[in-house]
Amino acid sequence: METTLKHVYLVGIGGINMSAVAKLLKRAGVLVSGSDTKESELTDELEAMGIRVSISQQKENVPEACDLVVYSSAVPVTNPERMEASRRNIRQITNFRFLGEWYANHRVLLVTGTHGKSTTTAMTGLILEACHQDPTVIVGSRVPSYPLGNIRFGEGELVLIEGDEYAKHFLEFTPYAIVINNIELDHTDIFPDEAAIVDTFRELLSRVQNGGIVIANADDARVSTLIGRERSELESRGIRIRTFGFGSHADCRIEDLVVRDGMQVFQVRDGEHRPVKAELAVPGRMNAQNAMAALTLISTLGIPQAEAVPALSQYHGIWRRFELIANKNEILVISDYGHHPTAVAATLDAAKSFYPGRRLVLCFQPHHKKRTRDLFLDFVPCFDRADQLLLSEIYDVAGREEVGESITSRDLQDAVIRHDAERGTQRSVEYAPDPEEALTILKRWKRSGDIILVMGAGDIYSIAKQILKD
Description:
It is a single chain. The protein is an alpha/beta fold and about 475 residues long. The chain has three domains: about 5-95, Rossmann fold (3-Layer(aba) Sandwich); about 105-310, UDP-N-acetylmuramoyl-L-alanine:D-glutamate ligase, CATH 3.40.1190; about 325-465, Mur ligase, C-terminal domain (Protein-Tyrosine Phosphatase, Chain A). It is about 35% helix and about 20% strand. The protein contains 14 helices and 21 strands. The chain has helices at about 15-25, 40-50, 80-85, 95-100, 115-130, 195-205, 220-235, 285-300, 305-310, 340-355, 370-375, 375-380, 410-420, 435-445; strands at about 5-10, 30-35, 50-55, 70, 90-95, 105-110, 135-140, 150, 160, 175-180, 215, 240-245, 250-260, 265-270, 275-280, 325-330, 330-335, 360-365, 390, 430, 450-455. A hairpin with a 2-residue loop joins strand 16 and strand 17 (about 330-335).
């Protein structure tokens, strides 16, 4: 593919993974251009690199000399640019199909799971870099130490990629190694039930190369059950399976975790029972598990944990993953991408552990109406640890909403208020029709000592930098 492409057009170029594909193509000397429906930090970044971005989607945008169209899975076949590509018989593939083909002959390490993929990928990449492996890394966020943010180009043999379960994207790869952090029902527009998503992870296991590696979370019941059922088949293909977690049954364990002075400190114990002290500057048990997933993969690749662990202390987070945005007048503003009930609850727990005794104000923007409806009963209690709760209107995901979805964040607000009454809790639970109104309410609420957490996978993050401005 690399030697034949001349001009590639990307439909939905402003997506976090799509923009990484654009950067990859440009570095390879391929002419690349694309479109999106609105400007963003990512489209601005691409244009600054000399990549032409059209903020509109119409058939005239598709270049005359185009020999491949790469599209985001959120872009329907009725999109005018995709229809034009079909009319002209231009090949069309998703961004993940592109990456699967581009790296088909490389040693791919794929990080998967419902939660924690970006963090685990970033941690693993930073450790591999510190251990002189010089990996190529593609992550669904921005890593502060990467000049290009969401992609790092290395000369080593390892290609580390965040694997997305949405639309079964991770099945586009035949990886040498995979990490499965956790499995939980999500993306209910794709997976009708838990069994469907588990089956997709089972299919992913079948795609791991013979003689490869599977790293699995021993603390997650669905992951453990899946690995238990597939273990004989995997081992018959020479695949090494190693587990991680807090439980004593894990091959690589987290022990004696304490929080002090803005750090998590714990012992890492590998399969040979050798303890190594680890320090982590991001909060939460889930991040300790993410770190352990990274370390388990690293050690299974043959790099001693004693060499890998020191790099963890240099990890200070990534874009929109418990990202510190502002610190003024003893008020902290943190931006986070969490949008699933389990992730929301875990992030609130993490904030409470790092900032005990401080008022926690949560502004949450649900993502995707169908997810909000299908996981509604899980969302209601997930906000329990927030001292003040502001619910912005559900982010409307272009190309993914079903006709007739009428649920709103007001429904969630009403249910949370009833839930609070039942548990005898008093706090403010307000509704904002849009991020602008949410900003107005947060400015009214803020007071010295607050931890203000702006959370969601939509555009709510855009207000975080403005909350403490006069």
